[in-house]
Amino acid sequence: MIDRTAVRNNANYLRNVRPIDPEEIAEYIEGTPHPAVVRETLREEAFDLRLRERDDGAFVPVPEATVDPPGWDPEALPEAYSFALEDLLVREYGANWHRGESGDELRERVRRLKSDYLYENEVEYDRVAALGYAIYHLPGYYAAIGHVLDDLTQNGLLDRTLRVLDVGAGVGGPAPGLHDYLPGDAVVEYHAVEPSAATGVLERLLEETGRNFRTTVHETTAEAFLGTDGDGEGTAPDAADPATDDPFDLVLFGNVLSELADPVAVADAALDALASDGSLVAFAPADRNTAIGLRRVERSLVAGEEDDVGPGRDAEIYSPALRLWPDAVPTDPGWSFDVAPDLAVPPFQRRLDGAATRGETDEPGEFVNVDVQFAYSILRPDGRRRVDIEASAERCARMAESERHVTDRVNLLAVKLSHDLSEGGNALYRVGDGSQATDHYLVCTRETALNRDLREAGYGAVVFVENGLVLWNEDEGAYNVVVDDETVVDLVAP
User: Fold this and answer.
1) What pLDDT, in 10s, does the model give residues 79-125?
2) Which of 166, 234, 235, 483 could form a disulfide with 252 if both were Cys (CB 3.0 to 4.6 A apart)?
3) β-pairing, 409-416 with 462-473?
């Protein structure tokens, strides 16, 4: 049994003197333990000591600086993860996994998964389903996490030591994406919660992460891990996993909330497991049902909701659906999603799609999915928001009051919540201000130098619209605010 206190004391003494060599520390420990034992002890203590292990086996302090935005813009799923997935497919079915009965089985399972998600059916993840899911979804989910984390790193809100909980980790995607997003001098204590056969894929992908990305996979349900699987009111603290004893800096819900029986209760428990300056990050597919479901959970968790909607608590929406009127609560459906550049088609998708039997009129691409489109929400218990901006009644109209302004020109403070939704006509953008009860769109009928900021603003940006014309769109059941040559749009916060 090694004296851990002695290891820690020696590491703390040497950290500011020179790189920490396990062989050197071994000489100072009673009983002279083997350097390999010291090295493993340092690995286990590295997170608390803020130490990272170098390639040469020495340990050095983690820089105190927070993570800077890395310029995340992947063009493809990295080869290491692509090869890892193909390795699993070859192990399971042989080199021709994409052909014959195995290929047909995988394609049928992908089709079934797509249908189940579309119609909100319960999804069962056996090994075949896990492999099919990974083939179809891994690239997009890998890319999405980095685009979401940009919202935090832009404000210096990710530390270089991170304790992470990935709820419903599935086959991975968020995990390798997080690993590649962070700088090489970061240290991560990563906990994945996943009860299904997907863990086989996840664990293989985690093998490709670095030595300072220390992983633990908990093969249990989110409810059991967070202690909410009792009578609906939560369970005693000792019923939860011991890994929850220390708070997490980052809790991830990647494409899983729609699959939980009570997503609000689970997410609420996850907020309890979060550090006071931590972030809960949830994202979902961009389709209407799951995106709206995500927004529903978000609204149920944020202080200000009615008691009959959810538990309510002291958490704030950090991004993207900011509430610009602090005393207001939105009640519109809230369908909103971001779009990032497509990825290159990975070899495993190309193989599965290319081996499909098609009729004369069937187009290729049924099993190719490289779109990066996702809804997301970031919540923080410390009340931080991505931009600290509020609307003023002296300068702006509330979207909640648009009915009284139909055919009037008004000023609005708005969050841009979509890319251009038009199909070749007038540019169309979904917007919100946190008060809206009905969908609102900005419709640019004539772009000028004075309103060009509307087009150039990114997803989640805050814009001030001066002199927009409010109209009611009967066909869509929504308000269109016309931006024309009489309208000025200023970018308030990117």
Assistant:
1) 999 999 999 999 999 999 999 999 999 999 999 999 988 777 888 88
2) 166
3) antiparallel
